[in-house]
């Protein structure tokens, strides 16, 4: 008899449980105050190897563990434990397809008051099946948001905190309600930050330009990946610098990067077409290289791919 697929499993309060059983109280600190931080990690199914490859698992776990310091979070699981739990969840769920892992560290205490020091934290994680999160083929129509990007001194943007996604959801909602696919955030000083849940890259005169780590962005692991493969595999000059709003209209190519978004070309900004409305040549080259890296087909970067089975 064929083995039944057990369905999605979550890691919750130290145990592997069916996802329906992973529930928190309404009094949970993180639910009331937005005091959670999380990661999004993709696993790509590689058909030839009949395996799921987790992309840059170590770097994602490392970012989460470091950011726990900002939020005064201490959990019993080590980085190595978390890496193991991520892979184990996919095995236990029996998934052999593209997946997305969502590890979360959250203030789990049922107590009043927003302070985080001395408030108990826990780690949980779940996995879902996930294909494309946004269009990666025809190009996105994007708008500069009327919402400003959070300032790092208000809610730290380098922490992928649950509370900070209010900012992202307002911008993404505004963009969609106005008929666009995505939003671009400006900072309080008027320069470009990033998309609602993705970093931004601009190509201008053959150079690949992205906003620097101190520009109120989440310093994306996909962003770092793109910078490295652009330089090392394609020989492209990469520049980190502020980007002015109007450069978005006059640049040669524009695309978003992110674990969810992958490499998503932008077709227009505020209804101004880029590159005749077609994804640009360097964007397409980077996208193709990125997909081959995440699927484990680039020997130089094979160490970024952790097999699950
Ligand atoms: N910025 C924001 C606000 C995001 O939510 C994401 C998605 N995690 C990114 C950038 C891209 O980060 P990464 O490449 O690490 O997924």
Q: Which key terms come to mind for this protein?
A:
2 domains; binds 4'-deoxy-4'-aminopyridoxal-5'-phosphate; 309 residues; 8-stranded antiparallel beta sheet; 9-stranded mixed beta sheet; 7 helices; alpha+beta; D-amino Acid Aminotransferase, Chain A, domain 1; D-amino Acid Aminotransferase, Chain A, domain 2; globular
Strand and helix map with partners:
Elements: E1 9-12, E2 15-18, H1 29-33, E3 36-38, E4 41-46, E5 51-55, H2 57-70, H3 79-93, E6 99-107, E7 121-129, E8 140-148, H4 165-177, E9 182-186, E10 192-195, E11 199-204, E12 207-210, H5 221-232, E13 238-240, H6 247-250, E14 253-258, E15 262-269, E16 272-273, H7 281-294, E17 305-307
The protein binds 4'-deoxy-4'-aminopyridoxal-5'-phosphate.
4'-deoxy-4'-aminopyridoxal-5'-phosphate binds next to helix 5 and strand 14.
């Amino acid at each position: 008899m064929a083995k039944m697929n057990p369905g999605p499993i979550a890691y919750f309060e130290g145990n592997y449980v069916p996802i329906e059983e992973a529930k928190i109280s309404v009094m949970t600190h993180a639910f009331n105050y937005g005091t959670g931080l999380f990661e999004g990690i993709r696993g790509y199914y590689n058909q030839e190897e009949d395996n799921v490859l987790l992309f840059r698992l170590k770097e994602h776990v490392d970012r989460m563990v470091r950011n726990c310091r900002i939020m005064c979070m201490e959990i019993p699981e080590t980085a190595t434990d978390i890496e193991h739990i991520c892979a184990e969840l996919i095995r236990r769920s029996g998934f052999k397809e593209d997946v997305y892992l969502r590890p979360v560290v959250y203030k789990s205490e049922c107590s009043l008051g927003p302070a985080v020091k001395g408030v108990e934290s826990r780690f949980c994680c779940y996995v879902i099946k996930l294909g494309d999160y946004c269009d990666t083929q025809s190009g996105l129509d994007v708008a500069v948001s009327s919402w400003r990007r959070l300032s790092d001194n208000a809610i730290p943007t380098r922490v992928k905190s649950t509370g900070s996604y209010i900012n992202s959801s307002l911008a993404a909602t505004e963009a969609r309600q106005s008929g666009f696919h995505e939003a671009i955030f400006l900072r309080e000083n008027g320069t470009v930050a990033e998309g609602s849940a993705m970093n931004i890259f601009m190509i201008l005169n053959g150079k690949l330009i992205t906003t620097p780590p101190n520009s109120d962005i989440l310093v994306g692991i996909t962003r770092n990946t793109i910078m490295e493969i652009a330089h090392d595999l394609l020989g492209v000059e990469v520049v980190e610098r502020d980007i002015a709003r109007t450069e978005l209209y006059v640049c040669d190519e524009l695309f978003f990067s992110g674990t969810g978004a992958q490499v998503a070309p932008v077709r227009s900004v505020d209804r101004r077409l880029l590159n005749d409305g077609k994804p640009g040549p360097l964007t397409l080259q980077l996208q193709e290289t990125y997909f081959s890296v995440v699927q484990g087909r680039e020997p130089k970067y094979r160490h970024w791919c952790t097999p699950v089975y």
